[in-house]
Amino acid sequence: MALLAQDGGRIFCKGIAEAGGRRGVMHRHEAEVNRWLPSAIAPRLRWSVEVEDWLLLGFEHVPGRHADLAPGAPDLAKIVPVLGILGAELAACPVQAPLVAEQWARLAAWRRLAKDTPPDLDPWAREHLDELVAEEARAIELVAGDHRVHTDLHSLNILVGEDGARIVDWAWSRRGNPALDTAFLIPRLIAAGHHPDAAECWAEAVLAWRSTPAATRKAFAIAIWGIWQLLERDQSLPHRPALITAARGWALHRIHQHKIGNEQADQGCQPWLVKHD
């Protein structure tokens, strides 16, 4: 990655070697998708160049920093409008992309964990694997859709500046339910220090999430927990245990809300909605 100066302003350039491989496919996909993204939510792609086995993408430089997701951070209010645009304007992107539902069906995280259970799997999950597998199957149906979703939202892929927030790195964009990006952000907020209630309260400001049924919320929470749990089993990474803990906390919170008949869990959210929606 490099910041380049050229006529007309600065350019953020990212390049990958072995452009003929899988990473090249991903970044060509990002280049294709970019021209369909509203400029209010993503930096514009100015050029792309392939030289020998290198692929270079040059984006407009957007001043900003990675988003702060901690409780009380002012960045949280700036992210909500961007998610609103995602949910409202990305239903008609003609660029083909894999379906999230098909990917989740192939991954079948909880089903795999039930079949080949790690000895260190969370005790609650071990005792409730049948329930988790069933909810995962529902999530695969509920995540279906033709809406463009980012699928990899976290603080490093959200740039915040004086004029608001932008979303970068669309190489993993897929087609699915428009509520999915908010669902992926909720455990990120929990990992940043929010209680599940507070994270969901924040999410209520996003229309695509506010209109999402409680059963779908629960299924998404359980599916995301399973995906990260399986990925950690197959390829351990330093940041993943904290994410798994956060995803587990959200999933158990959703399950508890279902059991007590308080599935929407939106009590106390109105001040945030009035201020930021």
From TrEMBL:
Residues 30-191 form the Aminoglycoside phosphotransferase domain. Pfam families: APH (PF01636). InterPro entries: Aminoglycoside_PTrfase, Kinase-like_dom_sf. This is Aminoglycoside phosphotransferase family protein.
